[in-house]
Amino acid sequence: MADLVLRKDSGAVARLTLNSPGNLNALSDTMIARLQDELSRLAEDRSIRVIILAGSGKAFCAGHDLKEMTRGRSAEDGGKAYFADLFERCATLMMTLPQLPQPVIAEVHGIATAAGCQLVASCDMAVAAAGTRFGVNGVNIGLFCSTPMVALSRNIPRKQAFEMLTTGAFIEAEKAETLGLINRVVPQDDLAAETMRLAETVAAKLGSAVRIGKQAFYEQAQMPLDQAYAYTGQVMVENMLDRDTEEGISAFLEKRDPEWEQP
User: Fold this and answer.
1) What angle do CA 60, 120, 149 make, to 5 degrees?
2) Which of 187, 203, 219 is the endpoint of a domain?
3) DSSP state at residue 44
4) Which has the least CB within 10 A, 42, 83, 136, 256?
5) Which domain does 221 fall in, by range?
6) Residue 236 is part of a domain; what is its CATH number?
7) 50 vs 11: CA distance, rounded Å
8) Whole-number mean pLDDT of the chain?
9) Both 111 and 183 in a single domain?
10) Nearest alpha-carbon partner for 139 in 113, 165, 111, 118
11) The whole model's pTM is what?
12) Dist. CA 43–CA 89, nearest whole Å
């Protein structure tokens, strides 16, 4: 269980790798628990400014562990309590990603299906290898991907999301990029390097500004236009009063590198 999620830090970037290649990194009960634990620890780690989420083996993540879910049906209530708890814990995990102070970048290869596609959609950014396929395929086995739908429909246009959900068809990485599910497609051999390059670019920015900005990004998206402007105006006021922001502006005007106090 301790090896289900591997962590490797490179400066201010933490790389988490789902490490259950035998079942395509399925989100089993223990995988959800381990990933939740790692993300909770990272939320308190101010030395880490960006998180990369990757998968080992042939695929990024194939969604929930269907064999484990089948065993859950053996309870007296037919699995009702088990399934309710499973989807609640999975939803908590997915909501944790945008709530983290650090940006999270999904590094995707192979396939990202059902809850695996949901995991990509829940990250702040995503880089995918050419040839990667994305799907919410539960409808093919009679299980509509209702919870993955939440994240997916907040990433791509509704009609495209509905088609994916009702046909169970895969989309290729290039279409996923066009629709906005991922940021870019790169050759498989360049995937790790390109994802790290993006992570390091973000990690080089003022950490406090990125933390403030990430929270504001998601908060304002849920507000009416006038409330969003009022809220983000106050966020910018607080940001402007930050000593490091003042230093950053001065450094820009004086054509020198900033000397920031905060990580």
Assistant:
1) 120
2) 203
3) T
4) 256
5) 207-253
6) 1.10.12.10
7) 10
8) 95
9) yes
10) 165
11) 0.95
12) 18
